[in-house]
Amino acid sequence: MEIDNLNKTNFTKIIDNQEVSLFNLTNKNGFICQITNFGARIVSFIIPVGTSGIDVVLGYDSIEEYQNDDYYLGVVAGRYANRIANGKFILDAKEYSLFVNNGPNTLHGGQKGFDKVVWNARPFLNENNEEALELSYLSIDGEEGFPGNLKVNVTYTLTNKNEIKIDYSAETDAKTVLNLTNHAYFNLKGAGEGTITSHDLSLNADYFTPTDAGAIPTGEIRSVSNTPMDFRIARKIGERINDDYVELIQGIGYDHNWVLNKESNALSHVATVSEASTGIQLNVFTTEPGVQFYSGNYLNIKKGKYAKSYPTRSGFCLETQHFPDSPNHEDFPSTVLNPNETYTQTTIYQFEVK
Ligand code: BGC
Prior knowledge:
globular; nine-stranded antiparallel sheet; five-stranded antiparallel sheet; Beta-galactosidase, Chain A, domain 5; mainly beta; binds beta-D-glucopyranose
């Protein structure tokens, strides 16, 4: 099976004086999730199909390729997932300046975000005997320009319900902003097996946040009605992706935050993606108010795992999150974290084979 090709020694290395390794989680149904503590990244998710398996997560064969990755494959993005306009925000009348790494803006935490740091790793079995990996990281006051010493924990659990369950928590010693997400690219035909435009997608969202040409929300909350952004009823990702609609032209496809239909921050079902040719379906649940649906428009990876290539639109991300650039939009749900508060978020990617 394909997993044999991923050589664990290619993932073992000392980076920043810490040991980096590849961790395998398996469940009783034969599903496998591989994670590296470099960037808290999901490297593979292998679904047993017949006598073989389909790996639905895009990734690389070695840690060196992850060190050079510009696409945020499988990462935990932070401290602030997605963009902060001009790399600036104000908290209590003080302006903070971040490293700008995406045109004039800050993307996914700056120059060395959570995707490029080494996390402490602790594999364990949970109360249901399911395999889990707790990753923790201390982001020091001033790192990438963000205030506060921030302790972050991310626990990945591969459940017997064929879910990757991701539980995040964080605490700070000074007022700060925080927005964490996972940036795995999925392809339900199998990573490297063509584009994702044939997948059916539904999103439980009546509104989305339109952006300017630099992908920063304008502040408008727009109804999806009568637009190509309407996924309330499942339809193919590719059906309207090339429409003459300014949001899609700017993003070269979908790269937007949808405002999830939710009344509270309880865990709820927010998205479903399915691929008829393999029968694989992904159901997404989250406690977050938004999801960035990114159709992998900028992907251009010549050599991913098993020597396969990942061209444009060969993977999609459903990044459950608070809205991009919230620190600069008072009417968006707040991303402020105060000392003595605990940030939490839970997201579940659940797989079925029909
Ligand atoms: C962003 C895209 C960006 C990608 C980076 C997504 O979260 O919305 O604009 O290109 O991450 O790989």
